[in-house]
């Protein structure tokens, strides 16, 4: 699809907004109020007042979705019907997306940023979405969503907030790798938490667990015995051992 054809198809979407309707109303009903710049300023101010008094109203391109509460206890044994849930407002399409369409940005890139936006929006409102939520919203497979998320995280050097990372479920890559890498760069916990948008308490927990594994490795506890000594699962222990192998190679040269 050429850029010109795509621009013709999506240009009209720029005008299907509340701001455009308000701009046209002022221009038609109050023609002497001022020029386009004055009207734009009025529209912006009125829109801010409207949002202040209607914080839960939906804008064009948004939906309401039920997300698992962010503070829900982390467990895989609790059925979805027993989990606390909260309604969250998600932005499927916004003006930034439209601009990307007009610039002929690849659809996959637009989708990746939309996924990141929705996951972040849910967290800001006290909820967490799973990849299956995003898949249902976008009418695509969970494998497609998973690939998009992993690519975005690699490009942006971050971890997107979803149930797997926020509640440490399953084999989803958690914040551990990002926390430990920054810890080995001598960064403070608060700085690490701010950079990856994660809870400082959780960051400290990852760091303390990592240091505990390092200490056991240094005193000669075998990798096979560490899960029992540290009181960790074998899979969790292996995660920290691999991180230690990456950042503390000298330890393994002595084993």
Brief descriptors of the model:
255 residues; mainly alpha; 3-stranded antiparallel sheet; 14 helices; 7% strand
What features would you describe in this structure?
The protein is mainly α and 255 residues long. The chain has two domains: 59-163, no CATH class; 176-254, no CATH class. 59% of the residues lie in helices and 7% in strands. Strands 2-1-3 form a three-stranded antiparallel sheet, covered by helices on one side. The longest helix has 19 residues, at 200-218. The radius of gyration is 24 Å and the shape is elongated. The N and C termini lie far apart (58 Å).
Strand content: 5-15%
The overall pLDDT, averaged over residues, is: 85
The gross shape turns out to be elongated
Which H/E pattern describes the elements?
Answer: HHHEEHHEHHHHHHHHH
How many structural units, i.e. domains? 2
Give the % helix: 55-70%
Report the radius of gyration as a whole number of Å: 24 Å
**Describe the biggest sheet?**
3 strands, antiparallel
Distance between the termini: 58 Å
What structural class do you assign from the helix and strand content?
Answer: mainly alpha
Strands of the widest sheet, in order across it, are 2-1-3
**Secondary structure tally: strands:** 3
SS summary, helix count: 14
Unreliable runs: none
């Amino acid at each position: 699809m050429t850029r010109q054809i795509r621009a013709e198809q999506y240009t009209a979407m720029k005008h299907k907004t509340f701001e455009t309707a308000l701009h046209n109303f002022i221009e038609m009903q109050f023609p002497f109020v001022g020029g386009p710049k004055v009207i734009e300023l009025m529209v912006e101010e009125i829109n801010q007042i409207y949002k202040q008094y209607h914080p839960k109203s939906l804008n064009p391109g948004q939906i309401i979705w039920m997300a698992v509460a962010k503070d829900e206890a982390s467990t895989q044994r609790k059925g979805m019907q027993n989990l606390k849930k909260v309604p969250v407002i998600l932005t499927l399409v916004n003006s930034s997306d439209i601009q990307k369409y007009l610039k002929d940005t690849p659809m996959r890139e637009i989708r990746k940023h939309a996924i990141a936006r929705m996951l972040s929006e849910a967290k800001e409102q006290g909820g967490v979405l799973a990849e299956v939520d995003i898949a249902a919203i976008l009418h695509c497979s969970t494998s497609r969503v998973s690939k998009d998320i992993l690519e975005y995280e690699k490009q942006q050097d971050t971890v997107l907030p979803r149930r797997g990372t926020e509640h440490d479920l399953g084999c989803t890559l958690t914040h551990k790798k990002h926390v430990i890498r920054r810890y080995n760069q001598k960064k403070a916990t608060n700085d690490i938490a701010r950079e990856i948008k994660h809870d400082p308490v959780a960051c400290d927990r990852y760091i303390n667990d990592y240091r505990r594994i390092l200490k056991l490795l240094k005193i000669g506890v075998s990798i096979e015995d560490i899960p029992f000594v540290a009181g960790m699962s074998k899979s969790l222990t292996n995660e920290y051992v691999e991180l230690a192998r990456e950042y503390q190679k000298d330890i393994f040269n002595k084993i």
